[in-house]
Amino acid sequence: MLWNHKFKFRKNNYTAGHIIVVLLAFSTPLLIGTPILYWQSGKALYRKAQTASRATVNHVDSILDNAIEATEESSLLLNKPCSEIVEALRIKATTTSFIRSLIISDQGIVYCSTVYGEAKRPLNVHYFHRDRLALLSGNIVTPDRAILVYQLKKNDTSVIATIDGLHVIQLLNSNEMTPETTLIVGSYWMGRDGKVHNTVVREAGKESAYASSIKYPFSVQSGYGKGALLEYILTRHLPLLALLVALGGLSAFAVNRLAMSARNMTAEIKRAIRNNEFMPYYQPVVRSDTQEWIGAEVLVRWAHPIEGLIPPDNFIPFMERSGLIIPMTTGLMERVAKELAAIQKSLPDDFHIGINISSAQLAEEDLASQCRQFLEQFPAGKVQLVLELTEREAIEPTEELQERVGHLRQAGVQIALDDFGVGHSNLNYLQEFHADLLKIDRSFVAGIINSDLSQHVLQSIIDLAIRLNLKIVAEGIETQEQADYLLEKGIHLLQGYYFSAPVPVETFADLLQKHKTAKS
Ligand code: C2E
Ligand code: CA
Ligand code: CA
Fold it and tell me: How far is the CA of 421 from the centre of ligand 2 (A)?
């Protein structure tokens, strides 16, 4: 609303509900955004791990391809004494990439090696996974350096190629961004640090991916340790996280402002009720045939000390939602009774006074007694109180409600259905509330001269009113042409700027006097 920005916020009186709502507004973007971010980052990390493990498998495959080549060629030299073949073996070992040494064994006994020449020591066959590949933490030559051992077996003899573990360690450490990668051969595994373990493969985190070589009996696992996902989110998606926090802050700010302004509005209206700032304006209701002023509709205005005169559409809906409409109407009715009682001598007898009531108020217990008190301010037969029922929300015509309407009738009050033809007021309401009057909304009147549709709607309302024996008031008459048309159609009562805009009581009394004098 235009005018509430000037109201000062009151300090230090946040309610628990207010704080909860603001906190919720703050955390909602984070609550929705973080899981999505978490899930997406998890997927991204998994894809990285997949790529890393596949790439590592391919690299190790191509290293081992050299071992195949060296061992297959060397196998042609089997069954010859070591002294005859060791030279050829040494040449082969030094000219093949990655190969450190070649060894030949027969029936589990090593008899020739490129390092020691002729030898005689047992070959430990347990190391070999599927008889082909072994990952060892070291050998006699280099006990502290991992080696990969490839065996080509032909019956009882085998040719063995050793590959320095450093090549693989370099591979595992090749890219800083890749996840922790582990080479696994049977029950042995080696990580980035180059240490060979013979334990169950360690947990590599949720985002770990596994790839096996098709050619050789080994596999590779790539994954992330604890906290890697969080670190990834914090480094990669910090701007997005910041945006979520900012969004939360923004929505918390907006919700806080809204809640504050609603509370300010409530406080402001309560203050205005106490200070009698809600004042009635009166708009005449005129007989269509004689042009006599037979009544007036009371239309509230808020005479705000700073904002000036505020029209009802700016605060009535809020008052209806907050329940403040009830004390406001009570005060307004008291004021109307006082103001009109003061000028009652100039009022014609049976003067209709229309008061706007919203549906929720109809259920109020003391509305009937308020109406009685209102009527008690005037001599019998002086005024006719009409409650104009405005329909912003549908009301359910419960038994209790009908009982209340009965009490109002006993108090001598008439019921008018306001804005008939728009909103929820319909035929049902007419029957349930035993209305006495129909007020045709000014949107229909605006169209009657030019629009066939408005004319049709008007005609059907008139037909209905005749059948139900109801009086009709047409609102929003702005031209003589409209007034004439409606008179011709048999509408009894008219209201609109053509006769007078809503005015304060003094002006109303003056206009009423002038009108009477002009007529006589
Ligand atoms: P409403 O009951 O339909 O009142 C008629 C509205 O039409 C008034 O607007 C009036 O000033 C305006 N009007 C009258 N003649 C003409 C005309 O010839 N041409 C045009 N264009 N407009 C005309 P207002 O005073 O701004 O009131 C707006 C609405 O606020 C009212 O509509 C009514 O629903 C509500 N309202 C006003 N006072 C009260 C009140 O004390 N209590 C409740 N619950 N509602 C009220
Ligand atoms: Ca009205
Ligand atoms: Ca209306």
Answer: 13
6 pLDDT more than 60: no
The pair of structure tokens assigned to 367 is 């509305």
Model confidence pLDDT, tens digit, residues 122-139: 887 678 999 999 999 988
Whose C-alpha lies nearest to ligand 1, atom 42? 356
Instruction: Please answer whether residues 350 and 384 qualify as being in contact, where contact means their C-beta atoms are separated by less than 8 angstroms.
Output: yes
Q: What is the CATH number of domain 276-519?
A: 3.20.20.450
Q: Which residue has the tokens 């060979």?
A: 196
- Ligand 1 pocket by C-beta < 6 Å: which residues? 283, 299-300, 311-313, 316, 325, 329, 332, 356-358, 388, 390, 418-419, 442, 475-478, 496-497, 502
d(CA 387, CA 372): 13
- Among all bound ligands, the one having the nearest atom to the CA of 326 is 1
**Burial of 440 from C-beta contacts in 10 A (0-12 / 13-18 / 19+):** buried
Rg, Å, the chain Cα set:
48
> Where do runs of H (alpha helix) occur along 173-237?
228-236
Residue position matching structure tokens 């070291």 = 138
- Ligand 1 atom nearest to CA at 361: 44
* Ligand 2: centre distance to CA 496 (Å): 12
- How far is CA 114 from each of CA 74, 89, 99, 111, 138, rounded to the nearest angstrom? 12, 6, 11, 11, 17
> What tokens were used for 99?
């190969």
Average pLDDT for residues 446-454, to the nearest whole number?
87
Distance 299 CA to ligand 1 centre (A): 6
Q: Which two tokens stand for residue 462?
A: 């008139």
Listed by start position, the domains of the chain span: 33-228, 276-519
Closest ligand to Cα 392? 1
- Across 199-208, b (16+ Cβ under 10 Å) vs e yields eebeebbebb
The phi, psi pair for 450, rounded to 5°, reads -110, -25
Lowest mean pLDDT among 17-31, 172-186, 195-209: 195-209
- Tell which atom from ligand 1 comes closest to the C-alpha of 328: 41
Sheet holding 196-197, edge to edge: 196-197, 188-190, 180-185, 219-223, 209-212
Q: Is the pLDDT of residue 9 over 50?
A: no
Give the distance from CA 49 to its chain's centroid.
Answer: 35
d(CA 341, CA 335): 10
Rounded to an integer, what is the distance from CA 171 to the centroid of its chain? Answer: 48
Whole-number Cα distances in Å, 355 to 166, 336, 358, 361, 384? 96, 9, 10, 12, 11
DSSP secondary structure code for residue 143 in this structure = T
CB 375 within 8 A of CB 385: yes
